[in-house]
Amino acid sequence: MENKLEVIRGGIMDGDMPLVQRTVTAALEEGISAPEILNEGLIKAMGEVGRLFEEGEYFVPEMLIAARAMKAGLAILKPKLIDADVKPVGKVAAGTVKGDLHDIGKNLVCMMLEGAGFEIVDLGTDVSPEKFMDAVKVQGVDVIAMSALLTTTMPNMKNTVDALVEAGIRDSVKVMIGGAPVTQAYADEIGADGYAPDASRAATLAKQLLGV
Amino acid sequence: MTHDPAGMSGKDLIFAALRHQQTPRVPWVPFAGVHAGKLLGYTAHEVLTDPDKLFEALLAVNRTYDPDGQPVVFDLQIEAEILGCELLWVDKAPPTVASHPLAADMHMPSRLPEPTDGRLPMILDTMRRMKDEVGEHTALYGLVTGALTLASHLRGTEIFMDMYDHPEFLEQLLTYARDVAKRVAGFYLDAGMDVIAFVDPLVSQISPRHFDKLLSDPYKELFAYVRERGAFSSFFVCGDATKNIDAMCRTHPDSISIDENINLVTAREITERHNITIGGNIPLTTHMLLGNQQDNMKFVVDMLDRVDSRNFILAPGCDMPYDVPAENVVGVVQAVRDPEGTRVMLANYHAESLDLDAVQLPDYADLDKPLVEVFTLDSDTCAACSYMKDAAQRATRELGGRVELVEYKFTEKANVARVVKMGVKNLPSIYVNGQLKYSSLIPSNRELVEVLERYLED
């Protein structure tokens, strides 16, 4: 039994999507529960991928193929997880702020959050404060994650926070930010709840913010 | 233009640094791309498309920031635009690539740029004009988009998956990107550029293993080509590329330039093993954009304390944000030109013993004639300060004895107290009758004379 989970973890870390798909299916057939495969296989492997990324052993390509393999495994598990009434640990709306089209960092954050058990609402790039607000009001997200690569678009993070305050919904959502020019000091200045320097730490931060 | 005591021009200093010789002082290269436009109130789009505005703005950079080396244009989308990428323009940043022609269609391109393509005519023309105007004393940098970044513009983020899914396609694409870079570098060398910098921010996102496999050979060829042409080369990277510095060095550039995500001392240990010059890494956001003049002066003098002057060029971490306050860059220039004097200034600024009561401010409301006060860091070493002082002198001379002029240098403690008491935020500045009129940006003679004439009328 453990062997299958180990194979899944190794497959994710190597980005071997067919191996992960095959082994997840075989593990289910063997009677391992979907929540156990999710927690002990997929989420644990992505945690390890994140750790290696933080340590500078893994880079963007390694993370992307690991995340792709994880997603392929998750797709097989999803119907079983619904049957077992497994809920995501939280719901996050992620987007690159208005005026900014850079999405590599934002995509990595989405993947790491998904790999940590979050449900993701990917708002894409060039996301206005209004769109972030809609995600809170309409989709009921717990966390807003904003990314910016340009110093010129960073102010739109503040504009979004200000819009949430103005709409009276700031307290109903956590706000986290990241991106090359962004710092903890900037997060403090604009009243965000947290800053993460990379995608792996974004997943850790989201959990901290929600206390999960 | 500043000549050091040994009579070397800024260009001589850059050349010496790139030949790995000891230099009498650390040379300095401000990466003023779109920020050049800010000095004259031009948008990013204007300085990146209009040759006259670009030329004017580059001359303003040369005058205000007294560079030893200077890039002519900093835009990593020039080649991509020629090769079919659509660009999204904004007022205060270089354009962003909005479409990737090879995202869905993996047909390998083969056409190489011509000097008549895209914005190359205006860039090459500006390079030639800069060469004529400042090329004798300033080393001019031609910036070429690096192979991985150009390939990613063409292919989009799929390029990362290609490393696993389509390695042969990616190898061909990088060979093509190398050929484009080589050709554009050739045009820039023909136009008189002294240094060719290949700028490849995406290098920070891949492992040393992928660098060796995919980029080592293309870059070896590019740097060998620049050397064959008798010019100097540099490899610019942005982001935390610490793990790739050694692999980058093994492609044999003359220098490497890094941003604040890399620890300069750590990186330098690696570059020194290869006897490669390192450039960097004044923090763009925390210091240049959001800090004040003193923060920047302190950062530079602290850095100069930690780093030996040989094999080192002071530069911002990457392309300076548009809105960097000019006075912050002026502070950097002062610190690199006169580190000892700057240390004294910084100590003075924080001295608690400043005797503010001893400073007698004039009765500005009851002056016999208009009073022009020029506050400078040190007009003997700071170019912007000397231009500010010259501007004030020229204007007051033109108005005969009707206006009074006085300069306060920050090097003297009594003047520091005056600066504090007056609430002067940035140097150099011109105050007229106690009111701030100009800060860091030098007024034209006509502009200043008109202002003073209005005071005379009052």
Summarize the structure in words.
- The complex is a heterodimer of chains A (212) and B (458).
- By secondary structure, chain A is of the alpha/beta class.
- Chain A has 2 domains: 2-83, Methyltransferase, Methionine Synthase (B12-binding Domains), Chain A, domain 1, CATH 1.10.1240; 91-210, Cobalamin-binding domain (Rossmann fold, 3-Layer(aba) Sandwich), CATH 3.40.50.280.
- Chain A is built from 9 helices and 5 strands; from the N terminus they run H-H-H-H-E-H-E-H-E-H-E-H-E-H.
- Chain A has a 5-stranded parallel beta sheet with strand order 2-1-3-4-5, with helices on both faces.
- In chain A, helix 1 crosses helix 4 and helix 6 (129-137) crosses helix 7 (155-166).
- The longest helix of chain A has 24 residues, at 60-83.
- The mean pLDDT of chain A is 94.
- In chain B, helix 7 (147-155) crosses helix 9 (167-190), helix 9 (167-190) packs parallel to helix 10 (208-228) and helix 15 (326-337) packs across helix 16 (339-350).
- Chain B is elongated, with a radius of gyration of 24 Å.
- Chain B is built from 19 helices and 13 strands.
- Chain B has 2 domains: 10-345, TIM Barrel (Alpha-Beta Barrel); 356-457, 3-Layer(aba) Sandwich (Glutaredoxin).
- Chain B is of the alpha/beta class.
- At the A-B interface, helix 4 of A face strand 3, helix 8 and helix 13 of B.
SSE blueprint:
The complex is a heterodimer of chains A (212) and B (458).
Chain A: H1 2-14, H2 17-30, H3 34-54, H4 60-83, E1 91-97, H5 104-115, E2 119-127, H6 129-137, E3 143-147, H7 155-166, E4 174-178, H8 184-190, E5 194-195, H9 199-210
Parallel strand pairs in A: 1-2, 1-3, 3-4, 4-5
Chain B: H1 10-18, H2 35-40, H3 44-49, H4 51-65, E1 69-71, H5 78-82, E2 87-88, E3 96-97, H6 120-134, E4 139-145, H7 147-155, H8 158-165, H9 167-190, E5 195-199, H10 208-228, E6 232-236, H11 245-249, E7 255-257, H12 264-273, E8 277-282, H13 284-289, H14 293-306, E9 312-316, H15 326-337, H16 339-350, E10 371-376, H17 383-398, E11 404-409, H18 413-422, E12 429-432, E13 435-439, H19 445-457
Parallel strand pairs in B: 1-4, 4-5, 5-6, 6-7, 7-8, 8-9, 10-11
Antiparallel strand pairs in B: 2-3, 10-12, 12-13
Helix pairs in contact in B: 4-6, 7-9, 9-10, 14-15, 14-16, 15-16, 17-19
